[in-house]
Hints:
Layout: E1 5-12, E2 16-17, H1 19-28, H2 34-47, E3 53-54, E4 56-57, E5 67-68, H3 69-72, H4 81-103, E6 114-119, H5 128-135, E7 143-148, H6 154-168, E8 174-181, H7 192-198, E9 203-211, E10 217-226, E11 234-239, E12 242-247, H8 251-267, E13 277-280, H9 285-294, H10 303-312, H11 319-325, E14 335-342, E15 346-354
Parallel strand pairs: 4-5, 6-7, 6-8, 13-14
Antiparallel strand pairs: 1-9, 1-10, 2-3, 8-9, 10-15, 11-12, 14-15
Helix pairs in contact: 4-5, 8-9, 10-11
Amino acid sequence: MTLAHINKIATAVPPYDVHKAFIAFARSLLDSDPRRQTLFDRMLDRADIEHRYSYISPDGVLDKGGIAATDFYRRGNFPSTGARMKAFEAQAPLLAQAAIDRLEIGPERDRLTHIVITCCTGFSAPGLDLEIMSRCGLPGSMERTMVGFMGCYAAINGLKLARHIVRSEPKARVLTLNLELCSLHLKETASLDEILSFLIFADGCAASIVSADPVGLAMDSFRAVLVPDTRELITWNIGDNGFDMFLSGKVPGTIQESLRGSADEILDGASLTDIELWAVHPGGRSILDAVERALSLKPSALAPSRRVLRSFGNMSSATVMFVLQQMLRASAGTRGCAMSFGPGLIAETMLFHGTG
């Protein structure tokens, strides 16, 4: 059976660092309530995030293009879902092109046979797939697949689909794209839970090439672990004023308990000590802490995930690819495990090994 490999990964983020501006905005929503302000500051300290990026310029200065926050997020008049989708249509292709350009495909772009895109923050038709093909000069014969609305674990599903394609068509070369503009769904709310959930999310894009070429990370197997009776813990619905997220505070504890009981299944008989690389989706510091405790990992094991969280925040489906990018040149035979979590509650996992 043909072995599929992630040959290349390139990443891109929008031009404006919005983390500090969001913190100031969030505090303004708390109505000067000392108790809520104190709780927010405590959670902010624990978030372990220093930067998050967006096409929305916090100060309204558009020296790098994008959207002025003063126009888009006007107090008392936040945009409708339709307005947010128009912004997505304008900005998402720019970010996709930036990531694809960094792959430096060159003349090999004519050899690309498939494109797989994951996204849960914007939709249109004709959509992102055709726009990207036009902008990047990709073959019009490419087979196109959109993986929509699966949330943070969608990148693993995208890789799984790319692997299926390569295993069935060994000459296939699959371009996978994981693109999210989470900052388009900010809400003007007094709910502390909602404000805290907005604290971690950001925008980003990852592009990768998957083929049978024995270069990069070889994808060995995939496993999905569904935690029963947890459907209400993470929800993502289309509302009249953007997409509405609910993220329960029970998620980290549920992940920790679930991983303790399913580690053998995820590792397919391997020992925890056999795994040298851990590409864990940094959904938040508490998520990474939960994984570390559940699997009794050394603090250094999740250092790549914590670096991505600190530098970029949670970019939904793109985030785990930022982590995998750091492992792309792993020594031959080095074994790894990637995992992401999302609505269901489901852990999507992948075992892989480096080719040197």
